[in-house]
């Protein structure tokens, strides 16, 4: 039996009722007095000079209140890092991809704004465009930005250990080339905001973002105003998967329009706009060379990565870091070298998406590991077990593995799936594949990246929790309430969770890099313990006991070992806070892992977060040899995410990530031709639905992480990184062919099978 | 030169720009998705049985979404104290005054709701009504509530010292009868709310209230739900003067309608509705007997008060307490006896209004004191000086005077006004009068009445202050920001003040009883000091100094005495909060005066608040003997409010209170006939405007109160209590006649002058 009352339970999300009854308010639902509606005009060219923009007719249209263009941006450039500010608020001299925004209109209603766009006359001079990242970085390619010779947005070179010596010592070396496609986040709620600028200069934005505080920071930095001049309020959000991490044109246009009109401006992209003119997952071409000992021990790896970054740098530094990172986990790798480039192309720019930069690498490394196993006649599970990172390991670049359940995950998954008993059957086109991954539980931001929390108590024993976390549907408000309830021995309905509003809730960097439970959860735990300590003092007097001897459970405070001797939580909060006898109890706390070290600028050695999750997937497929149709029958998943806080949400993340892995492995693909996205809708861009999901078997490897709240670690991104290669490996197991370019469509299968038959 | 940088300055209100540019959002401006509009149906009878209410036709009207009546209240009764819950959410069996609400409608727009009211058929059986409070408490009067024999809503008896012995020892005894009129608060923004009930049962109310947290408490108690089931959010408020302290029918109707429809319901009273169907100032008839020594020393007082409470008890316990209280300050009074009754009448019920229950008494006591002075041939200023409470005094009922500047106030006011040099001139119908008062700086609530505060810091040295105070136009947000700025050595624009939202900001009982600066100001000061201490630790390391040796000034932290050796506030906040090097700084604090003692149930001895202000007004009038027109020429005001925090706001309170005193003394009067208010509009109910104000001469008696924040005490209510009798005394000084029934209209003057001439 669990030692916990609330932790590790299958607790439904606290907002479920609101959500299913339609009472949850999203930005699109909101109305402000005097509100206008904004729309943006997009470039139809992938690359063109802007010769002139004539807004006079649009401005005169009845109902139009303002039209803004790049000129209104006053030369301000944006980008999430100081080094990546390469984009005008609205395009000024040039457009660089189809969808690049050139003007914005605010009008009394959405239709008027939309109509007014047609009255804006933009004169373009088309320029030669470049779409292939490897061609883009060649001498003589059309230049997209004046400052970027050879269209290199960013590069990163790592060299840990002695790679040459490693390869010398290797018994077997393989080189392979893998490539991944462009995909979109596929959230159901497109980007939306309402922006209000008051006459004091304060800018308030209601926005469906994943990182309210970093949106505040980035906007303040870009506009050059203090942090308290910007307020970002996050209402309900219809998920993000990384696509709502960053500032996009929508926000800047709304700020320009709100400033110009003095009225709140609402802007809601339709789904097509969210797909074609914001950001998408970054495609990566990876040439990977790996050396192993005869027994499968990894000795060296050397990767060359070319990232198709699209028209702007955006997250280049993080993307390339993540590409490096995914090589050094989840296996021991003593020697590693990376050469990575992000190229500018005339395409929609990239942004984080579940497993940012890492999924693409895990796909390559895990598939190549199966090839190596096959080359050496080893069992794919055994070669993974042999190399698995263990608790106490430190990677070549300084990542500290303070807990690892990878070996257990592999053992449990293979055991449960009956791995040894039955493998692939080439005759029947049935196969099984394994994939492993490790994922950082969060990542350090360049500035403040602690999470904070505040707890207040009502007089009748109810708890108000203020946290800056961004619940975007993943349920972190519920997790924070659970942690509070556990510490204080109360129930979920005793707690009101308020999040997130940068003028109200304590700082939190937001929902990205699978950090929330670990960082914010710890902050909430510390804060709840602070409240518990304050109440224990009061209760101790009431019970004539020592504060340290008290236990908070079942809405009561007991003397440990004397379950009869207790006083209700409500009574204690009242006694503690009644005027003249006590004070108002306020709990506070913040958390940042003490073992984090920002990577050294030169050596790139550092420990970017407090702990790392470990995951294993075993996929089972059945392929129709006549049509090439791939049926993903079952995925067995074993996860070391430390102590689960909420099993329902944990399972949801594992299932969701595996479902997304299936989409990415088999069919998700933003198809682009001459710079134009051909399938910018969820009708034409195929994503798995719940109906498409395979049978999923979930195994929790419960290892208490010494740093995580109640021992919890990451769950959310890690699983896409192991399930995807598990599926690809299963396809190989079923067919004997390797397809190294995602997605693995039926067409590709059929072609490969044909080729194989021809060859044999 | 002041030792302070921000305290005691003429700082404009931080919301001024928003307010004057129309960007301040009041409840009436707000819009919620799916919002309905509510209206209530009022009784046309002062007293009647409800035989039947037929809502079937109204319910069927297109656009009507719900109609509720008393039945929907399910027997729930309300009132601000447990003992005063005598009112149905909507009238059930009976109506008790013209304006008593019997039904409410929610419809898609306001006009439809209004029209639907006409379709509700109410069958009444009129009952005999009673309007005179002295008649109401006689045997045989029509009974308004079954439970209240003789229509006594409340009584209170005090007996301190030995009154009989006191009168025995008196050289002179006077008995007089004074009475005051019914007045209305006269705020420009009528009552308004939007109420939303979500399917989890949570009720959120946006309301223009003075006490968001006590509205939450009262609503929770009445509905029998936990405190966290109710959220009260206060946007901008267009003043209250006590009229927005309590729950009124509007809120309950909106809750019933929001529950029934599942949609947000907006209700906005028009000004007439605010005047006729909410609450008004309580008229008091006071028979007062006072005994003095020949030299003017007060020895005994015995008062009988009859309060015209209207149809419901409402604030009876507080009203009668305040009537007693106003007798024992601002003078030493060793023996005091009170017999006070609040009568039910078929009129609009009472509620606090600036100087609640006290203004009426100070009017009587101060005027009678002038009569006594005249009887004894004493100077009215001297008799006041002789009896003035002094620092260290404790009143007969236990009020602790920890600081008193009353003597200084009298001396400074008389000096500045040239009191000794020129007094009244009966021939020229010019006169001068003096009035004094003392006012409690706040009052203890029956439950939690501490104020709390939380401070958060941005990374760039900006400060976010969360306080529960209710700024209703009086400027307390500005005062709280000033206190924060002073403690942290920063400026007003460094601070964002967030108030008030019961789910977000720390507890604060609200804006009533002139408590905010003293209670919340102290909480904010403690909280800012908590932040200062945390930052001092960080700065000390940066400056290699002792934390106690640091000074926070000019946005820098210096080593005391070394103004050159400093580091910027911004740098320190960044250093303190950068991840891995610090933590998120959160300040917390709460305040309740340590010297407050809740009056003993039996003896009624107790000290209800931390400190008391002292005030003196000298009024100068000029009367047209032919028309009776009274010109208030000038008021000289001296106030001991301790150390002023914001001179602009302090002066505004003094001027506003004196202006209201003028209105109450001379013309404000809600005229009621057969239970019907005849002048329910600001056209017919005359109030002074800025154009009517006399010349005002303000004297600040700056005495550091040992308990107040930076030494500050009350300002806001005290001045109405001294300015009103000063005006009445000046009229007597100018005319030789006494008018003891407010208001002193020209008609009354003319009549009294005629009578005087007849007599002489």
Overview of the molecule:
The structure is a homodimer of 760-residue chains. By secondary structure, chain A is of the alpha+beta class. The first copy, chain A, folds into 3 domains: 16-23 and 450-591, 2-Layer Sandwich (Aldehyde Oxidoreductase, domain 4), CATH 3.30.365.10; 31-127 and 189-238 and 244-276, Aldehyde Oxidoreductase, domain 3 (Alpha-Beta Complex); 284-444 and 599-759, 2-Layer Sandwich (Aldehyde Oxidoreductase, domain 4), CATH 3.30.365. Chain A has 18 helices and 30 strands. In chain A, the strands form 8 sheets. In chain A, strands 3-7-1-14-11-12-13 form a 7-stranded mixed β-sheet, sandwiched between helices. In chain A, strand 4 (77-78) and strand 5 form a beta hairpin. The model of chain A has no long low-confidence stretch (mean pLDDT 96). At the A-B interface, strand 19, strand 20, strand 21 and strand 25 of A face strand 19, strand 20, strand 21 and strand 25 of B.
Q: What is the count of distinct domains of chain A?
A: 3
Radius of gyration of chain A: 27 Å
Full CATH superfamily name of the largest domain in chain A: Aldehyde oxidase/xanthine dehydrogenase, molybdopterin binding domain
* Average residue-wise pLDDT of chain A: 96
Total DSSP E strands of chain A: 30
SS element count, helices of chain A: 18
Relative helix content of chain A = 25-40%
Structural class label of chain A:
alpha+beta
Find the biggest chain interface: A-B, 58 and 60 residues
Oligomer: homodimer
Top CATH class of the largest domain in chain A? Alpha Beta
* Beta-strand content estimate of chain A: 15-25%
The biggest beta sheet of chain A is recorded as:
7 strands, mixed
């Amino acid at each position: 039996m669990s030692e916990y009352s609330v932790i590790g339970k299958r607790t439904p999300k606290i907002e479920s009722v609101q959500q299913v009854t339609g009472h949850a308010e999203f930005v699109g639902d909101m109305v402000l007095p005097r509100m206008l509606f904004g729309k943006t005009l997009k470039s139809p060219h992938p690359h063109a000079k802007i010769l002139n923009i004539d807004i006079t007719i649009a401005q005169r249209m009845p109902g139009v209140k303002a039209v803004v263009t790049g000129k209104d941006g006053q030369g301000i450039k944006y980008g999430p890092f100081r080094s990546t500010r390469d984009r005008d608020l609205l395009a000024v001299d040039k457009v660089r991809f189809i969808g690049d925004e050139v003007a914005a209109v605010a009008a009394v209603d959405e239709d008027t704004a939309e109509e007014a766009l047609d009255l804006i006359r933009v004169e373009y001079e088309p320029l030669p465009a470049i779409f292939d990242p490897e061609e883009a970085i060649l001498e003589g390619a059309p230049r997209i930005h004046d400052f970027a010779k050879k269209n290199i947005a960013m590069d990163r070179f790592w060299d840990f250990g002695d790679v040459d010596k490693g390869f010398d010592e290797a018994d077997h070396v393989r080189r392979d080339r893998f490539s991944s496609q462009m995909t979109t986040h596929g959230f159901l709620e497109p980007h939306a905001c309402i922006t209000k600028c008051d006459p004091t200069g304060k800018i308030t934005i209601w926005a469906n973002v994943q990182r309210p505080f970093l949106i505040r920071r980035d906007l303040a930095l870009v506009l050059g105003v203090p942090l308290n001049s910007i307020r970002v309020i996050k209402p309900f959000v219809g998920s993000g998967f990384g696509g709502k991490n960053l500032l996009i044109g929508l926000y800047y246009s709304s700020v320009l329009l709100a400033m110009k009109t003095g009225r709140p401006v609402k802007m809601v992209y339709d789904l097509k706009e969210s797909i074609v003119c914001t950001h998408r997952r970054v495609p990566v071409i990876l040439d990977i060379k790996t050396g192993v000992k005869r027994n499968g021990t990894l000795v060296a790896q050397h990767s060359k990565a070319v990232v198709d970054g699209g028209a702007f740098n955006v997250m280049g530094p993080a993307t390339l870091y993540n590409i490096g990172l995914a090589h050094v986990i989840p296996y021991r790798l003593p020697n590693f070298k990376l050469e990575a480039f992000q190229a500018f192309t005339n395409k929609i720019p990239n942004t984080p998406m579940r497993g940012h930069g890492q999924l693409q690498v895990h796909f390559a490394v895990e598939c190549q590991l199966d090839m190596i196993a096959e080359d050496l006649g080893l069992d794919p599970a055994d070669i993974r077990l042999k190399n698995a990172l263990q608790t106490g390991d430190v990677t070549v670049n300084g990542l500290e593995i303070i807990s690892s359940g990878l070996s257990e995950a592999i053992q449990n998954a293979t055991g449960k799936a009956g791995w040894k008993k039955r493998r692939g059957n080439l005759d029947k086109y049935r196969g099984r594949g394994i994939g492993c991954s490790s994922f950082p539980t969060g990542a350090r931001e360049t500035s403040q990246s602690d999470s904070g929390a505040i707890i207040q108590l009502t007089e009748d024993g109810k708890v108000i929790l203020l946290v800056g976390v961004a619940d975007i549907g993943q349920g972190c408000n519920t997790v924070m309430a659970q942690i509070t309830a556990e510490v204080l021995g109360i129930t979920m309905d005793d707690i009101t969770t308020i999040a997130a509003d940068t003028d109200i809730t304590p700082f939190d960097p937001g929902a990205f890099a699978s950090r929330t439970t670990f960082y914010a959860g710890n902050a909430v735990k510390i804060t709840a313990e602070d409240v518990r300590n304050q109440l224990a003092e009061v209760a101790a007097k009431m019970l004539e006991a020592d504060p340290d001897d008290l236990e908070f459970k079942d809405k009561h405070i007991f003397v440990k070992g004397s379950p009869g001797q207790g006083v209700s939580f409500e009574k204690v909060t009242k006694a503690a806070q009644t005027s003249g006898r006590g004070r108002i109890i306020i709990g506070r706390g913040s958390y940042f892992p003490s073992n984090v070290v920002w990577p050294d600028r030169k050596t790139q050695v550092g420990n970017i977060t407090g702990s790392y999750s470990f995951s294993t997937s075993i996929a089972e497929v059945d392929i129709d040899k006549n049509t090439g149709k791939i049926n993903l029958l079952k995925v067995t998943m074993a996860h070391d995410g430390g102590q689960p806080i909420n099993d329902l949400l944990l399972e949801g993340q594992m299932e969701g990530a595996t479902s997304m892995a299936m989409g990415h492995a088999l069919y998700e693909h933003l198809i682009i031709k001459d710079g134009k996205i051909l399938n910018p809708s969820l009708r034409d861009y195929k994503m798995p639905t719940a109906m498409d999901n395979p049978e999923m078997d979930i195994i929790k490897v419960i290892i208490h992480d010494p740093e995580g709240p109640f021992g919890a670690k990451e769950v959310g991104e890690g699983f896409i990184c192991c399930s995807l290669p598990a599926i690809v490996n299963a396809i190989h197991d079923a067919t004997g062919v390797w397809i190294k370019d995602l997605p693995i469509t039926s067409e590709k299968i059929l072609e490969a099978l044909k080729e194989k038959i021809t060859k044999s």
